[in-house]
Amino acid sequence: MTITADHGRTYGHDDLPGLMSLMTGDEKHGPAATSTLDVLWVLYDRVLRITPERREDPHRDRFLLSKGHGPMAYYAVLAAKGFLPVDWLPGFGAYDSPLGHHPDRVLVPGAEIGSGSLGHGLPIAVGSALGLRAQGLHDPAVWVLIGDAELDEGSNHEAIAFAGPAGLERLHTVVVDNSSASHARPGGIAARFEAGGWSAVTVDGRDHEALYAAFTAAHPGRPHVVVARVEPKNA
């Protein structure tokens, strides 16, 4: 599926490297960005119920990019889906560009939060899911994308421990695992979430069909995490 953007042109997954190549300059955090590219595409192309026209709809799904220190792939996907103009991309990181090295929810159409500091996104997602439930909005899903290194931050473990017993079944987390965490062991990411009462699936983070199946797996009464393994950051 594609969405028309930029005066009738449509963009697909194969166009994303070209869109990312428009963003130049220093401090690109290239590995952080490219590690998320396939996860972001599958979410925006096949899973998330959000379009540029529905950005203010209270019944929309919410996507929170916690891994905001590498936003190039995020900007490329938002441009491909018509949330922001493609001609914004070459200005990435410039003084007068809305596309900063960390996304700003006030400046970037479609961004739900300002992010980039490690460990903030998952607690915010828990609060978002709680807030929607308190308002009686039980249909919108909340998705948050975090990096494996963020799990070194204790704030995430508090969020994990709370969300399971709270039964936040509309809460979904994607952990992009590029082996950059300082305190980790093989298989330990999924085990941490499962110990907190979450549903957990680990998949190849480059396999679109595996990602889609994991993203849409049933998990009644529990929050859900998908651990998307990609090539090691320093490989």
From TrEMBL:
InterPro entries: THDP-binding, Transketolase_N. One of its GO terms (molecular function) is magnesium ion binding. This is Transketolase. The keyword Phosphoprotein does not apply. Keywords: Thiamine pyrophosphate. Residues 29-226 form the Transketolase N-terminal domain. Its cofactor is thiamine diphosphate. It comes from the Bacteria. Pfam families: Transketolase_N. Belongs to the transketolase family.
